[in-house]
Amino acid sequence: MRWIAALVVALGLAAPAAADVGDVRFAGIAGGEIALGDYAGRPVLVVNTASFCGFTDQYAGLQDLWERYRDDGLVVVGVPTDDFDQEPGTAAEIKEFCEVEFDVDFPLTAKVTTRGADRHPFFAEVARSLGEAALPGWNFHKFLVGADGELEASWPSHVRPESAAITETIEAELAGEAASS
Predict the structure, then answer these.
(1) 53 is catalytic
(2) pTM, whole model, 2 decimals?
(3) SS3 sequence, the chain?
(4) If exposure means fewest CB atoms within 10 Å of the residue's CB, which of 10, 16, 69, 92 is most exposed?
């Protein structure tokens, strides 16, 4: 039965069950650290990204979300990954690509792994709490971490950042109306 719930979440058809990711830390793409706990009380959209993917143009939509909602409290975090052989660049190359091609100024992490035994702790918690089927099946899978540090929603790659499904969920979270599981 749990695999059905995880599949529904992976397909973006429902909000996931609670998974606490508020203490997760990422290495920053330009050094330093991105700690989700630093954003306590604010929703965070975590997106696995890649520079050479059919969905790469979603960087523009992510930047638009960041610009539209950051003053209200939303944080967008791009998480580059080469899990699908579409992010071969170095940290400097990835950062430059995002800045030059899409004017990205939201936080970007160092490149991580989202699948397998060496996956980053954020994705390990997704798998532990929601099952392997909830992990990204491709680049630009989106996870909304609520102001309380728990996963509130998840959308697969084909759901664009500017979609009503995402913006309405973000707006509800910003208004303190967390999605129901």
Answers:
(1) yes
(2) 0.87
(3) CHHHHHHHHHCCCCCCCCCECCCCEEEEECECEEEHHHHCCCCEEEEEECCCCCCCCHHHHHHHHHHHHHHHCCEEEEEEECCCCCCCCCHHHHHHHHHHHHCCCCCEECCECCCCCCCCHHHHHHHHHHCHHHCCCCCCCEEEECCCCEEEEEECCCCCCCCHHHHHHHHHHHCCCCCCC
(4) 92
Condensed to tens digits (0 to 9), the pLDDT of residues 5-26 reads 444 444 454 444 456 777 899 9
Q: Give the chain's radius of gyration (CA, Å).
A: 15
Please tell me which residue in 9, 10, 29, 53 is annotated as part of the active site: 53
Q: Where are the domains of the chain?
A: 2-174
Q: Any idea which fold 2-174 has?
A: Glutaredoxin (3.40.30)
Beta-bridge mates of residue 4: none
Calpha distance 170→181 (Å, rounded): 15
List all residues 6 or more positions away from 19 whose beta carbon is below 8 Å from its beta carbon: 125, 126, 128, 129, 130, 150, 151
